[in-house]
Design a protein that fits this description.
The chain has 284 residues and is α/β, with parallel strands linked by helices. It has two domains: 2-169, HUPs (Rossmann fold), CATH 3.40.50; 182-277, 2-Layer Sandwich (Pantoate--beta-alanine Ligase, Chain: A,domain 2), CATH 3.30.1300.10. It has helices at 7-14, 31-41, 71-80, 91-94, 113-116, 120-135, 147-159, 189-210, 215-228; strands spanning 2-4, 20-25, 46-51, 85-87, 139-143, 165-169, 232-240, 260-269, 272-281. The strands form two sheets. The chain has a six-stranded parallel beta sheet, with helices on both faces. Strands 7-8-9 form a three-stranded antiparallel beta sheet, covered by helices on one side. The protein is globular and about 55 Å long. The relative contact order is 0.13.
């Protein structure tokens, strides 16, 4: 694996690749990230992973300086997974001047996660657009755990004709169901047990939906699981369209043939904020 920090060198190296599969990250890797890399290997000859902590997606109450930088360990993990290039640019390389023109996610970026983290998704879309421009990938792989981010990236690619195929990789979970996240390491043992209420609540809601329950009962099952866990404060629970994150009302009838609904949740466990989601399958 070759580590590159310079944009000119990156372009020279990628000019020789027949097809590029890209995995954007902010580093601090775990098994979920490595699964994205494995997915990318199936879609491109040259797998490129970026490591860049993007300041544009951090709000004023979010401590950019405290985000863990684990570049040496990240590079070692990527080398084991067959990554061809690791692009780890400096802040000056990515933003030589403060950007004037940025990408806006519109109404989709203002709902749910966007409401709790104003400006976050605009920062994500701006850096992803820059990375797409630098790498010109054929395919980019994003995790479905960050479902709203995935929906926004797909919409950006469509609306701006960026010509990148977007692959959504399934959420990777611990054996007990907890969705993998860099934030899990901030949980105490008791908090980690409480955090299981997210995946357990989602599973209960999905089962109820499959049995024909309406939205109120499905969402209520998730809230009940969270309320019964100690130290959990719910930010939101909702059933949404996975493409645009508008609400779906199962009381008006289950999703039709070929359609899906996404059951989403965000909650704070102690001082750690976690998100998760599961698909509610439509009729077959």
């Amino acid at each position: 694996m070759q580590q590159i920090a310079n944009i000119a060198e990156l372009r020279e190296r990628l000019g020789k690749a027949a097809s590029v599969a890209f995995v954007p990250t902010m580093g601090n890797l775990h098994e979920g990230h490595l699964d994205l890399v494995r997915q990318a290997r199936a879609h491109g000859e040259c797998v490129v992973v970026s490591i860049f902590v993007n300041p544009l997606q951090f709000g004023p109450q979010e401590d950019l300086d405290r985000y863990p930088r684990t570049i040496d360990g990240d590079l070692a993990m990527r080398a084991d997974e067959g990554v061809a290039l690791a692009f780890a640019p400096s802040l000056d390389q990515m933003y030589p001047v403060d950007p004037v023109v940025t990408v806006s996610g519109g109404a989709l970026a203002s709902r749910f996660e966007g409401a709790h983290r104003p400006g976050h998704f605009d920062g994500v879309l701006t850096v992803v657009a820059k990375l797409f421009g630098l790498l010109r990938p054929d395919v980019a792989v994003f995790g479905r755990k960050d479902a709203q981010q995935l929906a926004l990236v797909r919409r950006m690619v469509t609306d701006l004709d960026l010509g990148v195929a977007i692959v959504g990789a399934p959420t990777v979970r611990e054996p007990d169901g907890l969705a993998l996240s860099s934030r899990n390491r901030n949980l105490s043992p008791s908090e980690r047990e409480s955090a299981l209420s997210l995946s357990r609540g989602l599973s209960a809601g999905v089962s109820l939906a499959a049995a024909g329950a309406g939205s109120r009962e499905v969402v209520g099952a998730v809230r009940t699981a969270l309320d019964h866990a100690g130290g959990v404060r719910t930010d939101y629970v909702a059933l949404v369209n996975p493409d645009d994150f508008t609400d779906i009302d199962l009381a008006a009838g289950r999703p039709g043939r070929g359609q899906q609904a996404l059951l989403v949740v965000a909650a704070r466990v102690g001082r750690t904020r976690l998100i998760d989601n599961m698909l509610v399958q439509g009729e077959t």
